Amino acid sequence: MDTSKKRRVLLLCLAMAAGLYNCKEAPKKENTKETMEESTMVTVTQSAYGTTTNGEKVERFTLKNTNGMQVDIITYGGRITNISVPDKTGNFENVTLGFDRLELYEQNNPFFGALVGRYGNRIANAQFDLEGTTYELAANNGPNSLHGGIKGFDKVVWKVIETSQGDEEARLKIGYLSKDMEEGFPGNLQTAVTYTLTADNTLKVDYEATTDKPTIVNLTQHAYFNLSGNFSEDITDHVLEINADQLVPVDDNLIPTGELTPVSGTPFDFTSPKPVGQDIDADHEQIKKGGGYDHNWVLNDQGQGLRKAAVLEHPASGRVMEVATTEPGVQFYTGNFLGGNLPIPGGGTYQKRSGLCLETQHYPDSPNQPSFPSVTLQPGETYTTTTTFTFTTN
Protein backbone atom coordinates (compact mmCIF):
# COMPACT_ATOMS: atom_id res chain seq x y z
CA MET A 1 0.00 0.00 0.00
CA ASP A 2 1.46 3.43 -1.01
CA THR A 3 1.96 6.29 1.49
CA SER A 4 -1.07 8.35 0.39
CA LYS A 5 -3.41 5.37 0.66
CA LYS A 6 -2.11 4.53 4.14
CA ARG A 7 -2.75 8.17 5.18
CA ARG A 8 -6.39 8.06 3.93
CA VAL A 9 -7.06 4.81 5.80
CA LEU A 10 -5.54 6.27 9.01
CA LEU A 11 -7.65 9.46 8.78
CA LEU A 12 -10.82 7.41 8.17
CA CYS A 13 -10.14 5.25 11.23
CA LEU A 14 -9.55 8.35 13.39
CA ALA A 15 -12.77 9.96 12.10
CA MET A 16 -14.79 6.84 12.89
CA ALA A 17 -13.31 6.66 16.39
CA ALA A 18 -14.24 10.32 16.98
CA GLY A 19 -17.80 9.78 15.75
CA LEU A 20 -17.28 12.15 12.78
CA TYR A 21 -18.04 9.44 10.23
CA ASN A 22 -21.29 7.53 10.18
CA CYS A 23 -20.65 3.98 8.89
CA LYS A 24 -23.97 2.51 7.90
CA GLU A 25 -24.33 -1.24 8.19
CA ALA A 26 -25.83 -3.21 5.35
CA PRO A 27 -29.47 -3.98 6.07
CA LYS A 28 -29.86 -7.30 7.86
CA LYS A 29 -32.34 -9.93 6.72
CA GLU A 30 -35.08 -10.09 9.31
CA ASN A 31 -34.95 -13.25 11.37
CA THR A 32 -38.56 -14.11 10.61
CA LYS A 33 -40.25 -17.42 11.27
CA GLU A 34 -40.13 -18.16 7.55
CA THR A 35 -36.37 -17.61 7.20
CA MET A 36 -35.68 -19.61 10.37
CA GLU A 37 -37.73 -22.52 9.01
CA GLU A 38 -35.93 -22.28 5.69
CA SER A 39 -32.55 -22.57 7.38
CA THR A 40 -33.40 -25.42 9.75
CA MET A 41 -35.90 -27.59 7.93
CA VAL A 42 -35.36 -31.00 6.41
CA THR A 43 -37.01 -30.48 3.03
CA VAL A 44 -38.73 -32.50 0.35
CA THR A 45 -39.05 -31.20 -3.22
CA GLN A 46 -40.72 -32.70 -6.27
CA SER A 47 -39.70 -32.66 -9.93
CA ALA A 48 -40.61 -34.50 -13.12
CA TYR A 49 -38.37 -37.49 -13.88
CA GLY A 50 -39.82 -38.84 -17.09
CA THR A 51 -42.57 -40.88 -18.71
CA THR A 52 -42.62 -44.67 -18.99
CA THR A 53 -42.95 -46.46 -22.30
CA ASN A 54 -46.66 -46.99 -21.58
CA GLY A 55 -47.25 -43.31 -20.86
CA GLU A 56 -47.16 -43.14 -17.04
CA LYS A 57 -45.56 -40.05 -15.54
CA VAL A 58 -42.75 -40.65 -13.07
CA GLU A 59 -41.86 -38.10 -10.37
CA ARG A 60 -38.63 -37.58 -8.45
CA PHE A 61 -38.64 -36.53 -4.80
CA THR A 62 -35.53 -35.06 -3.20
CA LEU A 63 -35.15 -35.20 0.58
CA LYS A 64 -32.40 -32.97 1.97
CA ASN A 65 -31.27 -31.93 5.43
CA THR A 66 -29.17 -29.00 6.63
CA ASN A 67 -26.06 -31.20 6.85
CA GLY A 68 -26.23 -31.48 3.07
CA MET A 69 -27.27 -35.14 2.94
CA GLN A 70 -29.58 -35.75 0.00
CA VAL A 71 -31.74 -38.72 -1.01
CA ASP A 72 -33.49 -38.92 -4.40
CA ILE A 73 -36.40 -41.31 -4.90
CA ILE A 74 -38.44 -41.90 -8.05
CA THR A 75 -41.98 -43.26 -8.15
CA TYR A 76 -41.00 -45.91 -10.71
CA GLY A 77 -40.31 -48.91 -8.49
CA GLY A 78 -40.03 -46.59 -5.48
CA ARG A 79 -36.35 -46.58 -6.35
CA ILE A 80 -33.60 -44.73 -4.52
CA THR A 81 -31.50 -43.17 -7.28
CA ASN A 82 -29.08 -41.14 -5.17
CA ILE A 83 -27.79 -40.96 -1.60
CA SER A 84 -25.29 -38.13 -1.28
CA VAL A 85 -23.27 -38.07 1.96
CA PRO A 86 -19.94 -36.53 3.00
CA ASP A 87 -16.62 -38.27 3.50
CA LYS A 88 -14.28 -37.44 6.39
CA THR A 89 -13.06 -34.29 4.60
CA GLY A 90 -16.58 -33.04 3.89
CA ASN A 91 -16.63 -34.09 0.23
CA PHE A 92 -20.16 -35.14 -0.84
CA GLU A 93 -20.63 -38.05 -3.23
CA ASN A 94 -23.41 -40.41 -4.23
CA VAL A 95 -22.90 -43.81 -2.57
CA THR A 96 -25.65 -45.90 -4.18
CA LEU A 97 -25.62 -47.47 -7.64
CA GLY A 98 -28.16 -46.36 -10.21
CA PHE A 99 -28.83 -44.72 -13.55
CA ASP A 100 -29.45 -41.19 -14.81
CA ARG A 101 -32.34 -42.02 -17.18
CA LEU A 102 -35.73 -43.65 -16.68
CA GLU A 103 -35.36 -45.80 -19.78
CA LEU A 104 -32.45 -47.64 -18.16
CA TYR A 105 -34.54 -48.47 -15.09
CA GLU A 106 -37.26 -49.84 -17.38
CA GLN A 107 -34.78 -52.15 -19.09
CA ASN A 108 -33.44 -55.31 -17.49
CA ASN A 109 -31.28 -54.39 -14.49
CA PRO A 110 -30.36 -55.91 -11.12
CA PHE A 111 -33.00 -54.07 -9.04
CA PHE A 112 -30.87 -50.94 -8.49
CA GLY A 113 -32.42 -49.00 -5.57
CA ALA A 114 -35.79 -50.73 -5.94
CA LEU A 115 -38.57 -51.64 -3.57
CA VAL A 116 -38.92 -55.40 -3.91
CA GLY A 117 -42.16 -57.38 -3.51
CA ARG A 118 -44.51 -59.08 -3.21
CA TYR A 119 -41.83 -61.49 -2.04
CA GLY A 120 -38.20 -60.43 -1.78
CA ASN A 121 -35.65 -63.16 -2.49
CA ARG A 122 -36.22 -66.66 -3.90
CA ILE A 123 -39.15 -69.08 -3.70
CA ALA A 124 -38.20 -72.65 -4.66
CA ASN A 125 -39.64 -74.10 -7.84
CA ALA A 126 -41.76 -70.95 -8.24
CA GLN A 127 -44.59 -72.28 -6.09
CA PHE A 128 -45.87 -72.46 -2.53
CA ASP A 129 -48.79 -73.95 -0.60
CA LEU A 130 -51.02 -71.81 1.58
CA GLU A 131 -54.00 -73.15 3.49
CA GLY A 132 -54.43 -76.12 1.19
CA THR A 133 -53.98 -74.30 -2.12
CA THR A 134 -50.90 -74.47 -4.33
CA TYR A 135 -49.98 -71.17 -5.99
CA GLU A 136 -47.87 -71.16 -9.14
CA LEU A 137 -45.50 -68.23 -9.75
CA ALA A 138 -43.32 -67.15 -12.65
CA ALA A 139 -39.95 -68.91 -12.74
CA ASN A 140 -37.68 -65.94 -13.47
CA ASN A 141 -34.49 -67.19 -11.76
CA GLY A 142 -33.77 -70.66 -13.06
CA PRO A 143 -36.49 -72.86 -11.55
CA ASN A 144 -37.22 -70.28 -8.85
CA SER A 145 -39.31 -67.16 -8.46
CA LEU A 146 -37.18 -64.14 -7.53
CA HIS A 147 -38.16 -60.74 -6.11
CA GLY A 148 -41.86 -60.85 -6.98
CA GLY A 149 -41.76 -62.31 -10.46
CA ILE A 150 -41.61 -60.91 -13.96
CA LYS A 151 -43.27 -57.61 -13.05
CA GLY A 152 -42.69 -57.11 -9.37
CA PHE A 153 -43.01 -53.96 -7.27
CA ASP A 154 -39.75 -52.69 -8.79
CA LYS A 155 -41.41 -52.27 -12.21
CA VAL A 156 -44.60 -50.38 -11.32
CA VAL A 157 -45.27 -46.68 -10.74
CA TRP A 158 -46.12 -46.06 -7.10
CA LYS A 159 -48.77 -43.55 -6.07
CA VAL A 160 -47.77 -40.60 -3.87
CA ILE A 161 -49.82 -40.66 -0.67
CA GLU A 162 -48.29 -37.72 1.18
CA THR A 163 -45.17 -35.66 1.77
CA SER A 164 -44.15 -33.57 4.76
CA GLN A 165 -41.16 -31.59 6.00
CA GLY A 166 -40.06 -30.03 9.26
CA ASP A 167 -37.21 -29.22 11.62
CA GLU A 168 -36.37 -32.87 12.37
CA GLU A 169 -37.39 -34.84 9.29
CA ALA A 170 -38.88 -34.94 5.81
CA ARG A 171 -41.13 -37.77 4.63
CA LEU A 172 -42.35 -39.30 1.39
CA LYS A 173 -45.12 -41.90 1.62
CA ILE A 174 -45.96 -43.91 -1.49
CA GLY A 175 -48.39 -46.75 -2.10
CA TYR A 176 -49.20 -49.57 -4.49
CA LEU A 177 -52.18 -51.92 -4.77
CA SER A 178 -51.08 -55.37 -5.91
CA LYS A 179 -54.25 -56.97 -7.19
CA ASP A 180 -55.44 -60.49 -6.39
CA MET A 181 -53.38 -63.09 -8.32
CA GLU A 182 -50.96 -60.50 -9.70
CA GLU A 183 -47.83 -62.51 -10.51
CA GLY A 184 -49.63 -65.51 -9.01
CA PHE A 185 -49.96 -64.16 -5.46
CA PRO A 186 -53.40 -64.30 -3.77
CA GLY A 187 -55.21 -61.35 -2.24
CA ASN A 188 -55.48 -57.64 -2.98
CA LEU A 189 -52.40 -56.38 -1.15
CA GLN A 190 -52.47 -52.68 -0.28
CA THR A 191 -48.89 -51.63 0.35
CA ALA A 192 -47.38 -48.37 1.63
CA VAL A 193 -43.75 -47.44 2.09
CA THR A 194 -42.56 -44.30 3.88
CA TYR A 195 -39.09 -42.87 3.29
CA THR A 196 -37.98 -40.49 6.05
CA LEU A 197 -34.77 -38.45 6.11
CA THR A 198 -33.84 -37.09 9.54
CA ALA A 199 -31.74 -34.14 10.61
CA ASP A 200 -29.03 -36.53 11.86
CA ASN A 201 -28.38 -38.29 8.51
CA THR A 202 -30.63 -41.31 8.97
CA LEU A 203 -32.76 -42.67 6.14
CA LYS A 204 -35.69 -44.60 7.62
CA VAL A 205 -37.84 -46.98 5.57
CA ASP A 206 -41.20 -48.07 7.01
CA TYR A 207 -43.23 -50.77 5.26
CA GLU A 208 -46.88 -51.64 5.82
CA ALA A 209 -49.40 -53.85 4.02
CA THR A 210 -52.89 -55.29 4.40
CA THR A 211 -54.74 -57.98 2.45
CA ASP A 212 -58.28 -59.22 1.85
CA LYS A 213 -57.22 -62.89 1.46
CA PRO A 214 -54.51 -64.99 3.12
CA THR A 215 -51.24 -64.29 1.30
CA ILE A 216 -47.50 -64.06 1.75
CA VAL A 217 -45.43 -60.89 1.86
CA ASN A 218 -41.74 -60.08 2.30
CA LEU A 219 -40.75 -56.54 1.31
CA THR A 220 -37.25 -55.09 1.15
CA GLN A 221 -35.11 -52.29 -0.30
CA HIS A 222 -32.55 -53.37 -2.90
CA ALA A 223 -30.08 -50.46 -2.81
CA TYR A 224 -26.50 -51.25 -3.82
CA PHE A 225 -23.90 -49.37 -1.77
CA ASN A 226 -20.35 -48.32 -2.53
CA LEU A 227 -19.25 -45.91 0.18
CA SER A 228 -16.17 -44.84 -1.76
CA GLY A 229 -18.42 -42.85 -4.10
CA ASN A 230 -16.28 -44.13 -6.98
CA PHE A 231 -18.21 -46.85 -8.76
CA SER A 232 -15.25 -47.85 -10.88
CA GLU A 233 -13.80 -49.34 -7.67
CA ASP A 234 -15.14 -52.56 -6.18
CA ILE A 235 -16.35 -52.99 -2.60
CA THR A 236 -13.81 -55.57 -1.41
CA ASP A 237 -11.97 -52.89 0.60
CA HIS A 238 -15.08 -52.09 2.66
CA VAL A 239 -15.13 -53.35 6.24
CA LEU A 240 -18.31 -55.08 7.41
CA GLU A 241 -19.79 -56.27 10.68
CA ILE A 242 -23.01 -58.32 10.75
CA ASN A 243 -24.88 -58.90 14.01
CA ALA A 244 -25.53 -62.57 13.29
CA ASP A 245 -24.20 -65.83 14.70
CA GLN A 246 -25.98 -68.05 12.14
CA LEU A 247 -26.34 -68.37 8.39
CA VAL A 248 -29.05 -69.79 6.10
CA PRO A 249 -27.03 -72.16 3.86
CA VAL A 250 -28.27 -72.82 0.33
CA ASP A 251 -28.24 -75.53 -2.33
CA ASP A 252 -27.01 -75.25 -5.91
CA ASN A 253 -30.09 -73.18 -6.86
CA LEU A 254 -29.46 -70.79 -3.94
CA ILE A 255 -32.49 -72.19 -2.09
CA PRO A 256 -32.17 -72.76 1.69
CA THR A 257 -31.45 -76.30 2.77
CA GLY A 258 -33.64 -75.74 5.82
CA GLU A 259 -30.73 -75.66 8.24
CA LEU A 260 -29.37 -72.75 10.24
CA THR A 261 -25.62 -73.11 10.68
CA PRO A 262 -23.08 -71.25 12.85
CA VAL A 263 -20.87 -68.71 11.09
CA SER A 264 -18.02 -69.21 13.54
CA GLY A 265 -14.91 -70.57 11.84
CA THR A 266 -16.27 -69.93 8.33
CA PRO A 267 -15.85 -67.16 5.71
CA PHE A 268 -19.33 -66.00 6.79
CA ASP A 269 -18.21 -64.85 10.23
CA PHE A 270 -18.67 -61.07 10.33
CA THR A 271 -19.40 -60.94 14.05
CA SER A 272 -16.27 -58.77 14.28
CA PRO A 273 -15.52 -56.21 11.55
CA LYS A 274 -13.44 -57.53 8.66
CA PRO A 275 -12.76 -56.56 5.03
CA VAL A 276 -15.43 -57.78 2.63
CA GLY A 277 -12.74 -59.14 0.32
CA GLN A 278 -10.87 -61.10 2.99
CA ASP A 279 -12.71 -64.40 2.42
CA ILE A 280 -14.91 -63.59 -0.59
CA ASP A 281 -13.11 -66.12 -2.82
CA ALA A 282 -12.40 -68.70 -0.11
CA ASP A 283 -12.38 -72.40 -0.91
CA HIS A 284 -15.74 -73.01 0.73
CA GLU A 285 -18.79 -74.81 -0.63
CA GLN A 286 -21.21 -71.97 0.15
CA ILE A 287 -18.90 -69.31 -1.33
CA LYS A 288 -18.68 -71.33 -4.55
CA LYS A 289 -22.47 -71.67 -4.75
CA GLY A 290 -23.00 -67.91 -4.52
CA GLY A 291 -19.96 -66.82 -6.51
CA GLY A 292 -19.08 -64.86 -3.38
CA TYR A 293 -21.59 -63.67 -0.80
CA ASP A 294 -25.26 -64.03 -1.73
CA HIS A 295 -26.70 -65.40 1.48
CA ASN A 296 -29.10 -64.61 4.29
CA TRP A 297 -27.74 -64.10 7.79
CA VAL A 298 -29.92 -64.92 10.82
CA LEU A 299 -29.83 -61.71 12.84
CA ASN A 300 -29.39 -61.84 16.59
CA ASP A 301 -31.85 -60.45 19.13
CA GLN A 302 -34.94 -61.32 17.11
CA GLY A 303 -38.23 -60.05 18.48
CA GLN A 304 -36.58 -57.11 20.22
CA GLY A 305 -37.71 -54.42 17.79
CA LEU A 306 -35.37 -52.15 15.89
CA ARG A 307 -31.78 -53.26 16.52
CA LYS A 308 -28.39 -53.22 14.82
CA ALA A 309 -28.11 -55.50 11.81
CA ALA A 310 -24.83 -54.42 10.22
CA VAL A 311 -22.15 -51.73 10.11
CA LEU A 312 -20.36 -50.98 6.84
CA GLU A 313 -17.25 -48.77 6.66
CA HIS A 314 -15.02 -47.54 3.87
CA PRO A 315 -11.73 -46.74 5.66
CA ALA A 316 -10.23 -44.58 2.90
CA SER A 317 -13.17 -42.14 2.74
CA GLY A 318 -14.15 -42.52 6.39
CA ARG A 319 -17.80 -43.07 5.47
CA VAL A 320 -19.76 -45.39 7.77
CA MET A 321 -23.28 -46.77 7.34
CA GLU A 322 -25.11 -48.51 10.17
CA VAL A 323 -28.16 -50.60 9.32
CA ALA A 324 -30.84 -51.35 11.92
CA THR A 325 -34.01 -53.36 11.37
CA THR A 326 -36.98 -55.12 12.90
CA GLU A 327 -36.59 -57.97 10.41
CA PRO A 328 -35.20 -61.43 11.29
CA GLY A 329 -32.61 -61.60 8.51
CA VAL A 330 -30.38 -59.69 6.12
CA GLN A 331 -29.33 -60.80 2.64
CA PHE A 332 -25.74 -59.75 2.08
CA TYR A 333 -25.00 -59.71 -1.65
CA THR A 334 -21.70 -58.57 -3.14
CA GLY A 335 -22.77 -57.78 -6.71
CA ASN A 336 -21.30 -61.04 -8.03
CA PHE A 337 -23.48 -60.97 -11.14
CA LEU A 338 -22.74 -57.40 -12.24
CA GLY A 339 -21.02 -57.89 -15.56
CA GLY A 340 -19.82 -54.63 -17.07
CA ASN A 341 -22.83 -54.11 -19.33
CA LEU A 342 -24.62 -51.33 -17.39
CA PRO A 343 -23.55 -47.67 -17.65
CA ILE A 344 -22.36 -45.57 -14.71
CA PRO A 345 -23.68 -41.98 -14.86
CA GLY A 346 -20.78 -39.86 -16.03
CA GLY A 347 -18.94 -42.66 -17.78
CA GLY A 348 -17.79 -46.25 -17.45
CA THR A 349 -19.74 -49.39 -16.60
CA TYR A 350 -20.61 -51.24 -13.43
CA GLN A 351 -18.22 -54.15 -13.00
CA LYS A 352 -18.42 -57.26 -10.84
CA ARG A 353 -18.71 -56.21 -7.17
CA SER A 354 -19.14 -52.51 -7.91
CA GLY A 355 -21.65 -52.43 -5.07
CA LEU A 356 -23.06 -54.52 -2.25
CA CYS A 357 -26.55 -55.00 -0.84
CA LEU A 358 -27.77 -55.40 2.73
CA GLU A 359 -31.40 -56.38 2.16
CA THR A 360 -33.27 -56.66 5.47
CA GLN A 361 -35.99 -59.29 5.15
CA HIS A 362 -37.37 -62.70 6.10
CA TYR A 363 -35.42 -65.73 4.95
CA PRO A 364 -35.53 -66.98 1.35
CA ASP A 365 -38.16 -69.61 0.52
CA SER A 366 -39.91 -69.12 3.87
CA PRO A 367 -43.33 -70.14 2.45
CA ASN A 368 -41.89 -73.62 1.82
CA GLN A 369 -39.88 -73.84 5.04
CA PRO A 370 -42.20 -74.47 8.05
CA SER A 371 -39.37 -73.97 10.56
CA PHE A 372 -38.60 -70.43 9.33
CA PRO A 373 -40.39 -67.32 10.70
CA SER A 374 -43.78 -67.01 9.00
CA VAL A 375 -44.39 -64.66 6.06
CA THR A 376 -48.14 -65.28 5.98
CA LEU A 377 -50.44 -62.24 6.22
CA GLN A 378 -54.10 -62.71 7.09
CA PRO A 379 -57.05 -60.37 6.50
CA GLY A 380 -57.42 -58.03 9.46
CA GLU A 381 -53.67 -58.05 10.15
CA THR A 382 -51.18 -55.34 9.21
CA TYR A 383 -47.69 -56.18 8.02
CA THR A 384 -45.22 -53.64 9.43
CA THR A 385 -41.43 -53.54 9.34
CA THR A 386 -38.79 -50.81 9.69
CA THR A 387 -35.20 -50.48 8.51
CA THR A 388 -32.85 -47.53 9.01
CA PHE A 389 -29.59 -46.51 7.31
CA THR A 390 -27.52 -44.05 9.37
CA PHE A 391 -24.50 -42.34 7.81
CA THR A 392 -21.53 -40.99 9.77
CA THR A 393 -17.78 -40.59 9.27
CA ASN A 394 -14.70 -41.80 11.10
Written description of the protein model:
This protein has 394 residues and is mostly beta strands. It has a single domain, classed as Distorted Sandwich (Beta-galactosidase, Chain A, domain 5), CATH 2.70.98.10. 9% of the residues lie in helices and 37% in strands. It has helices at 3-17, 33-40, 102-106, 285-290, and strands spanning 43-51, 57-64, 70-74, 80-86, 92-94, 115-116, 122-123, 127-130, 133-136, 145-146, 159-165, 169-178, 189-198, 202-211, 215-216, 220-221, 239-242, 244-248, 261-262, 274-275, 294-299, 307-314, 319-325, 329-333, 357-361, 376-377, 383-393. A hairpin with a 3-residue loop joins strand 11 and strand 12 (169-178). It is globular and about 60 Å long. It starts with a helix and ends with a strand. Mean pLDDT is 92; it is low at 1-37.
CATH C-level name: Mainly Beta
Query: What would CATH call the architecture?
Result: Distorted Sandwich
- Alpha plus pi helix count: 4
- Major sheet: size, sense and barrel closure? 9 strands, antiparallel
Strand content: 35-45%
Termini separation comes to 46 Å
SSE topology:
Elements: H1 3-17, H2 33-40, E1 43-51, E2 57-64, E3 70-74, E4 80-86, E5 92-94, H3 102-106, E6 115-116, E7 122-123, E8 127-130, E9 133-136, E10 145-146, E11 159-165, E12 169-178, E13 189-198, E14 202-211, E15 215-216, E16 220-221, E17 239-242, E18 244-248, E19 261-262, E20 274-275, H4 285-290, E21 294-299, E22 307-314, E23 319-325, E24 329-333, E25 357-361, E26 376-377, E27 383-393
Antiparallel strand pairs: 1-2, 2-3, 3-4, 4-5, 6-16, 7-10, 8-9, 11-12, 12-13, 13-14, 14-27, 15-26, 17-20, 17-22, 18-19, 18-21, 21-24, 22-23, 23-27, 24-25
